[in-house]
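One example given next:
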Amino acid sequence: MATFDITGIVQSLHAVRHNWRQTQSRNSEAGNRAFPSRDALASIIDSLKGVLFPMRLGPPDLRQESEDFHVAHALDAALHALLHQVKRELTYHASVGDGGRHAIDEQALAAVRRFAAALPGVRTLLDSDVLAAYQGDPAAGSVDEVLLCYPGVLAMIHYRLAHTLYTLGLPLLARIVAELAHAATGIDIHPGARIGAGFFIDHGTGVVIGETAVIGERVRLYQAVTLGAKRFPTDAEGNLQKGLPRHPVVEDDVVIYAGATILGRITLGRGAVIGGNVWLTHDVPAGGRVAQAASREGALANGIGAA
């Protein structure tokens, strides 16, 4: 029968963990793990999908006459579960004594109440996203098909919820929620990005939207589009400066076709159209057109830079 040096490996792993915690000045977690749970958040978000769209993303046997009862029960359970995860994030970010624990409990409860109050507005924005996908894709047979099948819509459900958490000062929970969608769809939307109503990502795979991107209303993106940073400023000691505006501003009614890479704090003016596979690092005026073939030959002549 095969044998393994379990004891030696466990001891070695313990030593590695201990060294990491010492070098990173990490505190020991007494008792249960005091850190948000990815699995718990996945369950919470699944419940919230059914709260937002009960007859499409709720229980398969749900009847419309029981819709409000289901929403009330599922919402109450999801909010209590979320409250526990919010407390974990707040505790993770703070060294608290006995007095601090009470303050964290109050702060967590206030944040979850604000999150709950924001859900009707989230549903309204998602309705606009679903309608944009249906109206923008000739292959879409119904709004129900869009909601049930389109990865871009799934990513936006997660983004809208994650962005709400982000604005409430819960960036870790927000990032976990966003990354659940990233893993499922290949669409990477940072929860700090600001995205207006009627946003549609067609096909979706490989889309990247950075933390400080600002996107207006009725914007359409295709697969493999990147709204990224051109450079990463550092301080005098060579450390990255975090939180600075470094991603594009995309105004209303812009269309960006597949494979386009838009970098830096540039502005794509209202109604601009960016062709496939364009590499763009300069502003585009309202109504401007940038195509791959024109990026070298005609863009500079038209006042549009592409590099």
About this structure: The first helix runs from residue 6 to 23.
